[in-house]
């Protein structure tokens, strides 16, 4: 099987018919506009965009609609509790808990992207604003339970895609623990832009 890989940069522009890649962020910087002409590669990019927008909106049903019948996730340190959900029920519970945490406002500032017929790979700086109350529940001391705090790490995500164009799962890799030092990264009211999804 011959594979084709494209290097695509993110954009906030969305000319008619163009796939903005990736539209994964609450806010992103404008970069050169790039379009994918291959319909399978375009479909794979669009399902990842649809998935990440649903995640940012806290749309559990929309998220689940992007997944295969038997999704499998591998995130974080191997064996970390709750980070390896398998099957629709476990993945649904994982996302339900994530949405309930209030940390759905995220930005993945992707600077490297690869796509082929079976997979999309996104790599860049992941930023999420975590509610102080959620951090306290996780055992992380913060000075204000009503404030938001910046989780930040470089993250690569492998998105395997099935033949029907649905996401099989996510395999994510980070360069550091984004929670380290989070108590010192309190966000102000104007630090997070609204989602345009």
Keywords, please?
197 residues; alpha+beta; six-stranded antiparallel β-sheet; 4 helices; 23% helix; disordered N terminus
In short:
The chain has 197 residues and is of the alpha+beta class.
Structural class: alpha+beta
How is the main sheet built?
Answer: 6 strands, antiparallel
Low-confidence stretches: 1-33
Large-scale geometry: globular
Number of strands: 6
Specify the number of helices.
4
- What percent strand? 15-25%
- What is the terminal separation in angstroms? 35 Å
SSE sequence, one letter per element: EHHHEEHEEE
* Rg over alpha carbons: 17 Å
Helix fraction, binned, reads 10-25%
> What's the overall average pLDDT, rounded?
82
List the helices and strands and how they pair.
Elements: E1 6-7, H1 39-57, H2 60-65, H3 87-101, E2 106-115, E3 119-131, H4 132-137, E4 148-160, E5 171-174, E6 186-187
Antiparallel strand pairs: 1-2, 2-3, 3-4, 4-5, 4-6
3D architecture notes:
The protein is an alpha+beta fold and 197 residues long. The protein has four helices and six strands; from the N terminus they run βαααββαβββ. The protein has helices spanning 39-57, 60-65, 87-101, 132-137; strands spanning 6-7, 106-115, 119-131, 148-160, 171-174, 186-187. Strands 1, 2, 3, 4, 5 and 6 form a six-stranded antiparallel beta sheet that branches. The chain is globular and about 50 Å long.
């Amino acid at each position: 099987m011959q594979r084709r890989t494209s290097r695509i940069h993110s954009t906030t522009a969305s000319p008619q018919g163009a796939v903005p890649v990736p539209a994964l962020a609450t806010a992103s910087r404008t970069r050169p506009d790039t379009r994918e002409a291959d319909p399978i590669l375009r479909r794979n990019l669009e399902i990842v965009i649809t998935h990440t927008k649903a995640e940012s909106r806290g749309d559990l049903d929309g998220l689940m609609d992007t997944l295969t019948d038997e999704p499998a996730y591998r995130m974080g340190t191997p064996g970390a509790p709750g980070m390896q959900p398998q099957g629709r029920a476990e993945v649904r519970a994982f996302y339900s808990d994530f949405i309930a945490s209030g940390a759905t406002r995220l930005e993945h500032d992707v600077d490297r992207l690869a796509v082929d017929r079976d997979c999309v790979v996104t790599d860049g700086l992941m930023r999420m604003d975590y509610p102080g109350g959620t951090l306290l529940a996780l055992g992380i001391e913060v000075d204000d339970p009503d404030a938001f705090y910046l989780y930040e790490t470089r993250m690569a995500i492998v998105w395997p895609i099935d033949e029907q164009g649905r996401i099989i799962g996510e395999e994510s890799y980070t360069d550091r623990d984004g929670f380290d030092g989070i108590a010192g990264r309190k966000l102000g009211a104007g630090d997070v832009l609204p989602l345009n999804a």
